[in-house]
Every structure is written in structure tokens, then in C-alpha cells.
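Record type: monomer structure entry
Structure origin: computed from sequence
Chain ID: A
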Amino acid sequence: MQLAVYFLAAAAAIGSSTFAFPWFRDPCAAGFASLPHGNRQNRKEDASPEICQYDKEDNTKAPLKNIFSALDGNEIAAVTSFLHKQRELNLTAAVKATSWDNTIDLVELLQPNKSDALPYLNGDGPAPDRYARVGIQFKATEEPYIQDYMVGPLPVSHRTKLQPLNYLYNKGVGKQRIYHADINEEVAFYAKIGASVADITLDLWNGTFMGLPNDTVFVKGFEPLQIGNQSVITWLQFWSYPIGTIDDRASVLPLGLHTKINIAGRDPSKWSVLGWYYNGNFYKTTEAFRKAYFSPGFQKRGANVDGLWAQLMRDGEPRPRDTLVAPVQVQPQGRRFGVDVKEKYIEWMGFSLYIGFTRDTGIRLFDVRYNGERIVYELGLEEALSHYASDEPMQSGVAFLDSLEGFGRVSYELVQGYDCPSDATFLNTSYFTNEETRTHANSICLFEMDSGHPLQRYASSNTVSVTKSLVFTIRSISAVGNYDFIFDYEFFLDGSIHVTVRLSGYIQASYWAHSGDYGFRIRDNLSGSMHDHVISYKLDMDVNGTANSLLKTTVVPTRERYPWSDGELVNTMKLEKSFIDNERLSKLNWAPNSATTYTVVNKDAKNIYGEYRGYRVSPVTSSTTYLTVQNSESLKRSGGWATHNLYALKRKDTEPHSTSSYNNLDVGDPVIDFNKFFDGESLDQEDLVLYFNLGMHHIPDTSDLPNTVTTTAVSSMGIIPQNFHLENPSRATRQQIRLTFEEGKASQAEIFGSSHATCTFDMKNVKPNLAGYKGDIVVPKFPFLSTNVSFAPTRLGSQTRPGS
């Protein structure tokens, strides 16, 4: 900055017309148009401007059929019918099933193997056969389990077969025990426990939990279960019911009373209470707790009670001018991106891609190309972990692995004008549950926006050049229990991609008693309850083909002696470059001071300057955490993917994911153990896959009430070109300007073929259609009638799990 001021001062002294330093551009360069005196551009004043009009038809057609698209309703119905004909499965229709029947849990697309998909995408082969991934819950047994099968090829014909789906899982079999198969019996058992201390809870909180309609408190346990040889342990805590409609604000209403239970086996008469915890004291039996409670001197603590402080209503003094309409985004000439809705194919400013969708992880991007060149084969969410810490037993054991809830299942309709701009383009998503297809209308939004700051800018003594920073966003929001996850994939004019997640919702708080080391006190009886969010993504990049290597570049301090330094050592810095060439070295953390970057390159593809063409992976926000807890007893062998920031592996068809939603069912015996992937294979010029973690260390404070805000709960990763292009590709955009000014007035301008809207925009076009909010669209699949469509209310935060 000081150097620039010095040279500008020198230019003024010498005379700008003769100032010839090479980094100052000629302000009289050819191609500039003169501006009329006093105007910034040629503009014809129109007393009656025309209404903005544009063709809303989009003729974009995908170059290929989307082989990653979800199964359609007819495919799901055919597979469901096929399964019911397989006698060995002994299936019961969902509408008739009890907790002792075998049922279909999942029917969705089995993602094609990359080795089969690439020839098709490259124009060298046919589309791979289409298969369904099927999950069957076998509950007609003393040891219930869920098992995956593959059904195909599709459409269903004489060629279609049912086969166990094992190759995806390094456990050796796609099968996992279910320890929560008897939910109704568990709830009845919990009610008996509540009844056994009803006099105590009445005395403490003037409320009871006995499984009755007039209950004013309830109990909730932690995940995952603690599974032993003869035990299935969980801790329950008592919580206050919210006032009125039950929603997830109950998670900020803990009451501080805990009970430890064993629910091993399917005979409720053998389930047992193993102890009670209250106010820092553990009691081994209900009788011991009751005796202590009714003894003199027993300390009773207050309750967390619902009120306006916990409710999502406007509160506080009105802000000046806040009744004025807030700024809105408009597209005067229509959207500037193309969408093939049927194929879920998108084009924008040189980018193209396909969208896939799964129940467990939501949307995934495939075959992402820039200027026709593939840079990403697959990009998508793998898992989200919320690991808590506390001196109380329930919060201490909580480690939510949220894919079991299903990010796609709870990817609900977006609210126009609030979740996304009103003029965004919306797409639907569907998933299978209880032999129905549920469609979430408008659950993906696509929009381009001006970020409000320049993408690039430079000003000299009498010129200024500015390029707009325009961003294209693909967004979905998943309401997982008490948290909403806002997932963005953002694309930029320079060829960069940002993967961003924001969190909002109700924290799961702790009861404040002795918990100062584990969170802030945010109300009289409430602790913020510290926790880590670790959110894993898969990134399969193909840079100049599939033969890739991982280049490590580190900025290091050094003392160097140069020919010009008169023999003196100079304190400076330099680059150290090396390759991560083996899986033994490929569990990586970001370096302090952001000193290291990792870039996917092809060693056989250099640019004309001899540098590797590549894409680097770098944090965009400072918050990209890995799990603080080491060797977590709550996660056991299911958290290997959460211990570092970044991982690099040799890609295999048999290792398509770092984890599975089934892992949460038995964390000590996961169907996918991520650590087994690291078997010492070479990473030199191989087809690589990266896994990176987003997230944050969340220490809730008073500003998290009633909801956490996205200004702080945000994490982002950049996928950024490094020597991939010979110059900045954003130079191709017309959305830039170069102004020349003289004597305090703009005299020349070049707008490079762009234009500014002068038509009148009808603001009704961007008014949110709130009355059109639909919720779920339900189509039964067994028995199947294509006209049997109904609407169901959105069930935010419902806790459906395998076995429930």
C-alpha cells in the first residue's frame, strides 16, 4: 500500500502522461468509448420504460442421460413388487407389519461403479446397467438385523436377480444388527421408569412422565447405544415438554435427572434400571435414589421451563426502518443458467454437471466439467458427526452420526424468499419409506447472485477496472433433529468451487449444575454444552484424466545467502514441494498459519511454463475442524474419518464411501471401517479420491438462544484452480467495466458488450409464494396405484430409525 502511494505521488510529480512503470496501464488504451459530459454511460432517458420481458422456456438438454438420477416412481414400484415375490425374504407389507415382521426399509439407485460409468461419460461405451440398492429389515427373529441387497438389471424383467450387496462394505457383508427393534416396548418401559419416580418428579417440577396424554415431561436417550456382550446400555434424561406444539425446542429444556438402563434382548421383562444420576451424585438403584431424595438436606435444583425465550417469534425493540421492504434479487432478462429438469443437468458460465440424490446423504454432484474438461467426477456429503462433552452422563455419551436420520429424507421444501431467492429455480427430490415414495417439492434451489463485492479490481491514477463477482449456487437444507444443515455448492467465474455448510436450529443443551468446564452458563439452569461438528465430504477429482498425484506445497521460513547479498544470510521464506505418494502418509491436517496446500495434479500434464496443471483443496473459512476427542468410546471404530482434516486414497469400486448410515447401529462393529482403507498403496499417478472435513468447535453462548445463527456456524472448503489455466478465466465474462476519468469526471467506459437493465421490473415476479408450500407428496408403492397421491405434513425432526 505504501509503495503504491509512493509511485502515485511520483506520477503526479513527473506527469502521468510520461510515467512509464510497466505496472501502470495506459489510460488511453484503444477500445474505450467517450462518455458524454456528466454521464457515466450513454443512456437514453425514457419517461415510459418497457416492462421487463423474457422467454421463460429453457431448451437446455443434457448431452447424456443422467445415470446417477434417482429411481423414478415406476422403477421403485416394480422393485417393491419384485421383492414381495421373493419367498425367502418372508416380507410383510408395511401397512400390516409389526415389530416382529420383515419389511422393506430402502429402495433406491445403486450408484454405478466409476469403472463402468467413465466409458459412458467419455463417449466410449454404453450406459451401465441400472440396479437398485435394497435394505431389508429382518425382525422376525430374536436377533433382528438389516441387510442390503442389489436388484437388477432394471427395468424388472426375467434377467432381474436379487443378490446380497456385500462389495461396498469392508466388514465383508452388508448386514448390521438392530438393537432398537421394539420401539413401542421401549417407550412403555420408559413410562414405567417415570412412574416409579412420579412423586419425585411432581415434587421437583410439578410434572410426570408415565406415558399418559397429560404428561408434562418426557425422557430421551443418547446415540449411539453402548453395546456389550450381554448389555445394550443407554442413559435417559428427563426433559420438559414445550408449551403447545411439540417441536425440537425441547432440546433446550433439560431437567438434570438421568437414569441408566439396559435394554438387551427382546424380552422387556429382562430390561433393567442400572442407576440414577442427579446433581453430581450417582445412585446404583432406584431405592437408593429415593432414599437419598427424601433424606434431610437433599439439594433440589430448578427446572428449565419453556417460554418466549425459547420460541421462534419476533422479540425485542423494533429496529428503525425495519418495516421497509428488504432488498431482493431480480433477474431482469431471465436466468443465466440452463437446466434440464428431467435429467437434473445444469450449465452455467462454462460449468456443467449432473445431480444425484440418496436418502442418507442427499444431493451429490457428478461429472463436473469446466469448459468441457472434467475436473470432478463425484462430490458429495458422506456423514455429519456431533460429538458432545459434559460431566453429566447423557451428554457425555452423545455422538450423533446423522446419516442414519437420512439427510435426503429430511431435505424438506425450501421457503421462497427466505431459504433461497424468490426467483430461484426449484427442483424436487424423492425417497422411499414404508413402501411409499415421498416427494419433497422444491427441495433443491438453483440461483445466480451478485456477491456484492468485486471478483477482481484495479485502480490507477486515472482508470479503474472492476469485474462483478457472480456466483451460482446449488442449495438444499436438511432438518436433522434439532439442527438444520444448509448445504451449498457454489461456482465462480474463475473456475473455483466452494463447498459450504451452515448450521442453525436449537442446541442440545445440558443442565447447569457443575458443568463450567464444558460450556457457558446461558440461563439459570442451562449450559451451552460444548460439542464438535465434523462434516465429511467425498471429493473424487479427475485432473487431466484419472492418473493423478497429490502435490504438497508449504511456505517455510528460511535463511538464504544470495549472490547479491554480500555473503550475508537473509531471513526470508520459500516454497517446499513434495508429493504425498503413499497411503501411509495420507492422513493430513492443515498446517499452522495456513502454510500448506494440497493440489491434485497429473505429473504428465504440465502447462507451457512447465508447471503442473491442477486443482488445490484449501479451507475458505478458518473453521474446518476435525474431532477433538481422541479414541472416543462413543464412536469406537466408526469415527476413523473424523480424526484429521483431509485424507487421500487410491480410488476403488469396492470403497465408494468412507462410512455408512448402518455404522451408527453398532459403532464397535461397523460395516465400513474407514481405517481399513489405508493399506499402504501407492498414490503416485493413480485415480485418487479425497475426503475432507468441514465443521466447527461449537461452544454455545447466550446468542445461541433460541437458535444458533449461521454467521458463526459456517464452514467452507475451496476447490481452486492452480496453474490449470494460462490466465484467469473470469476475464471472459462481459460483466466487467473499465472507466477512465479526467478532472474528476468519467470520460471513457468500456462495458465489453454487457448492458444495464432499463426496463421496469414487475416485483410480483419475486413475491414469495408462501401459500404454495406443499410439504410431502406421498405415493404408495405397495400395492401401487400411480394415481394414488396424497399430501402429508412436513414432520420436522421426527426420529425414524431402522427398527422403529
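Annotation 1: DSSP finds seven helices and 39 strands in the chain.
Annotation 2: The CA atoms of residues 530 and 699 lie 5 Å apart.
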